[in-house]
Amino acid sequence: MVKAIIDISDSANRILGIIKAEFGLKDKSQAINKLTQEYKEMVFEPKIKPSYLKRLKKIEQEPLIHVGSLKDFRKRYHMD
């Protein structure tokens, strides 16, 4: 684990205190770790591939199939 001395604003300090309390963390170091994890998931996680978006748009344009009730669905697809 890396130790660091940092300078933060009063506002950032209050926000870290809120995060610490909200998630029941022991100290503000854990709050910073929580923030960085959330940021990583929000910003750095892989985005949806363009090929998937293209495929999704194609599926959305397909006509809907009315199946009816669950009984009709099972009958149609021989699931009895």
Write the layout of secondary structure elements.
Blueprint: H1 10-22, H2 28-44, H3 50-61, H4 70-76
Helix pairs in contact: 1-2
What is the gist of this entry?
The protein has 80 residues and is an all-alpha fold. The chain has four helices and no strands. The chain has helices spanning 10-22, 28-44, 50-61, 70-76.
Structure description:
This protein is mostly helical and 80 residues long. It has one domain (10-76). The chain is built from 4 helices and no strands. It starts with 9 loop residues before the first helix and ends with a helix. 2% of the residues are buried.
Q: Write down the overall mean pLDDT.
A: 88
Helix content: 55-70%
Distance between termini?
A: 58 Å
Structural class: mainly alpha
Biggest sheet details: none
State the order of secondary-structure elements, H for helix, E for strand: HHHH
Strand content: under 5%
Radius of gyration, taken over Cα atoms and rounded to an integer in Å: 25 Å
Number of helices: 4
Topology, number of strands: 0
Tally the structural domains.
1
Molecular shape: elongated
Uncertain residue ranges: none
List keywords for this structure.
mainly alpha; 80 residues; 4 helices; 61% helix
